[in-house]
């Protein structure tokens, strides 16, 4: 095998041997680039995680587990997160139900919903949304060429051992095999024609399973709409702090009772009177301060005139007329 550089920049280069396939009956070497994980926003697991780039398109967690097991032994590898999985997790931060419900209902639920939900409510919501999702049609994803992954190891010592193992691979020129016999039996669905045939079969989902997903979606959608309608009804019947009743979309509802309207009007008048009194007191304060300034100015002028008069008297007492 041709030798190459062991490092490039911050990356250590890990060559892996890809066995021949029926579609390409030649043994090839693929190069993985590995460095310590250093994201822009630090996390608690950065010290024991690795950042990989140029991962093969058929990569799975089982592939990486087998690869790192061949490098540093079993028990060191914990998990792997691929680039497309991180993007999917970010895009799923908003549930499909939130994306599907009308904008008016979404605004009401966001503005007037509970700020903190209990754990049981969150778990129930997750179960409902999982039931509302359509079944997947692919048994195994393919990665984008040159994509990345983050591998989490058992401890920081394991990270150092990985880099030592990569250096050892370059010295002995014995490259680990990608997707060989080290993969667990039945853990990785096959690719090729079997993969495409399975996709074609899953594209025509079971009617009962599909109907269950649609029913769960409809039930959850209707419940969200009902929650928004209850919030809108409450806003129509409750005057705000200024005594006004919010006009919301969704048709007319029964008006507030006469006692509630009179109470709201009384509170509004009391607030108006209080504001008027505060404004009047504010003007009184201005007038009082202005009078104090005028008095201080008059006292200052009087003191200046008195000093001038005293100076004139002193000067007149020293005057001696000519004889």
Task: Describe this structure as you would to a colleague.
- By secondary structure, the chain is of the alpha+beta class.
- The protein has a domain at 7-202.
- The chain is built from 9 helices and 7 strands, in the order E-E-E-E-H-E-H-H-H-H-E-H-E-H-H-H.
- The protein has helices spanning 61-72, 83-91, 96-100, 103-112, 119-132, 156-172, 193-202, 207-237, 258-317, and strands at residues 7-8, 11-18, 28-36, 49-53, 77-82, 148-153, 177-178.
- Strands 1, 2, 3, 4, 5, 6 and 7 form a 7-stranded mixed sheet that branches.
Proportion of residues in β-strands:
5-15%
What string, H for helix and E for strand, traces the elements in order?
EEEEHEHHHHEHEHHH
Which spans of ≥5 residues are poorly predicted at pLDDT below 50?
251-256
Shape: elongated
Number of helices: 9
Largest β-sheet summary: 7 strands, mixed
How big is the Rg?
A: 39 Å
Number of strands: 7
Briefly note the structural class of the backbone: alpha+beta
User: End-to-end distance, in Å?
Assistant: 134 Å
Average pLDDT value? 79
Residue share in helices? 40-55%
Family: Belongs to the RRP7 family.
Region (Disordered): 103-136, 242-272
Domain Rrp7 RRM-like N-terminal: 10-199
Biased composition (Basic and acidic residues): 118-131, 259-272
